[in-house]
UniProtKB/TrEMBL annotation:
SUPFAM superfamilies: Nudix. NCBIfam families: PRK00241.1. Transmembrane segments: none annotated. This is NAD(+) diphosphatase. The keyword Hydrolase applies. It comes from Hermanssonia centrifuga. It catalyses: a 5'-end NAD(+)-phospho-ribonucleoside in mRNA + H2O = a 5'-end phospho-adenosine-phospho-ribonucleoside in mRNA + beta-nicotinamide D-ribonucleotide + 2 H(+). InterPro entries: NAD-cap_RNA_hydrolase_NudC, NudC-like_C, NUDIX_hydrolase-like_dom_sf, NUDIX_hydrolase_CS, NUDIX_hydrolase_dom. Keywords: Hydrolase, Magnesium, Metal-binding, NAD.
């Protein structure tokens, strides 16, 4: 989707939506209820000062050959808002954080929607569970929405002076309230954010490397289990990238710190946004020696790690539900962090009392990059090569 220029959104961009829910609770961009902010006040460009958070997620243009919503003068904030809006072709998407809104109000709005009038029923469900039913477009919109709602909800105070912050640029920036035209700053030093180019807080994305480790002949894969996961889930190992670290160095460090493994032949696969809360998962394959003991006593997260054959993985993938997080698992699944995605237990041992059709362990779904890494390896969709001891290629500084 195109974000256009969120700064070009009219100051009270959500006025019409807000009125459909609550005139007083959703008033935006102004100091007091009933006021309208002046268009030329840049501190209030697409600002939201009252009511539940709304974020403009972007414009979905379905025809890739006719995408026209470029951040150009055609969509400039200097133009007439009505004329700019008339040029927009596509479906604009917004997120609305209703966590602080009374359930009755939310239900009323949903029932008045087009889907509600047609008899649809609505329910809030766990995001990880719902992802299995989303297509690529819906999944991407959900990932963006959840990450942006979470970022706006978590960051309430200015990191420079401690004053409350407010949302502007349609939810994509946060600024100190001491910068508002009506702020009373008498008796206090100016906020450091009032000077310079970096006077706003921007959404953050935390990069995480996630690794499927295989042996040199490429017929076995190492999977681990976080102690917070349900007992039968195993997955690829993962960890956050540290400052000043390359992706490849992060792969080596994480596997050494978590499992005591030296790896080589590091090979990039793909990435996936993981909005729990705001991570970018960067998928890799790496090669290790299965004859070297895998350590599970090096940190407080990794409870077990085992090597599986391709046949064992394929046998589990063939069982219906082997990559599904069920409702009864969600209490534990909610504890899954971005550092490690879902995972299960030994392929060579079964759990006492398990039902005949249940796999000996479970794997992450294809909606998670860990599941894609495992699936692609199991079905011979990737070629992993590397020579032990060969240095990773890096650019010169």
């Amino acid at each position: 989707m195109d974000h256009l220029q969120s700064r070009a959104t009219p100051t009270c961009f959500s006025k019409r939506l807000s009125e459909s829910v609550s005139r007083s609770a959703f008033h935006v961009g102004c100091q007091h209820d009933g006021e309208v902010a002046a268009d030329e006040v840049k501190e209030l460009q697409a600002a939201r000062l009252h009511g539940p958070g709304i974020v403009f997620l972007g414009l979905h243009e379905t025809d890739p050959e006719a995408a026209e919503a470029l951040p150009s003068s055609d969509f400039s904030a200097k133009g007439n808002a009505a004329e700019v809006a008339a040029k927009v072709k596509g479906t604009p998407y917004f997120s609305l954080d209703v966590s602080g809104v009374e359930e009755k109000q939310v239900d009323e709005v949903l029932q008045k929607s087009e889907a509600g009038k047609n008899g649809a029923t609505f329910a809030f469900v766990d995001g990880r569970q719902a992802m299995s039913s989303m297509d690529y477009v819906v999944g991407a919109i959900y990932a963006e929405a959840r990450a942006m709602v979470d970022w706006n909800a978590r960051n309430k105070y200015c990191s420079a002076c401690g004053s409350p912050v407010f949302s502007l640029w349609a939810g994509w920036k946060l600024a100190c309230t001491t910068l508002l035209p009506w702020a009373d700053n008498s008796g206090r030093s100016p906020c450091p954010t009032a000077v310079g180019l970096h006077n706003q807080s921007h959404p953050r994305t935390d990069p995480v490397v996630i690794m499927a480790v295989v042996n040199e002949v490429n017929d076995r894969i190492l999977l681990g289990r976080n102690r917070k996961w349900p007992g039968k889930f195993y997955s690829a190992l993962a960890g956050f990238i540290e400052p000043g670290e390359s992706f490849e160095d992060a792969v080596k460090r994480e596997l050494w710190e978590e499992a005591g493994l030296k790896v080589w032949g590091i090979q990039y696969h793909s990435t996936q946004p993981w909005p729990f809360p705001a991570n970018l998962m960067i998928g890799f394959y790496a090669i290790a020696d299965p004859s070297v003991p895998t350590r599970v006593d090096l940190d407080n997260e990794l409870e077990d790690a085992r090597w599986y054959t391709r046949e064992e993985i394929l046998a589990v993938l063939a069982v219906p539900g082997a990559t599904t997080i069920r409702s009864r698992d969600l209490g534990e699944a909610d504890k899954i962090t971005a550092e490690n995605l879902a995972g299960p237990q030994s392929a060579s041992s079964t759990v006492a009392g398990s039902v005949p059709d249940e796999p000996p362990f479970k794997l992450p779904p294809l909606t998670a990059i860990a599941g894609v890494l495992v699936h692609d390896w199991a079905h011979d969709k990737v070629v992993i090569t590397g020579t032990k001891g060969s240095p990773a290629l890096k650019g010169s500084l």
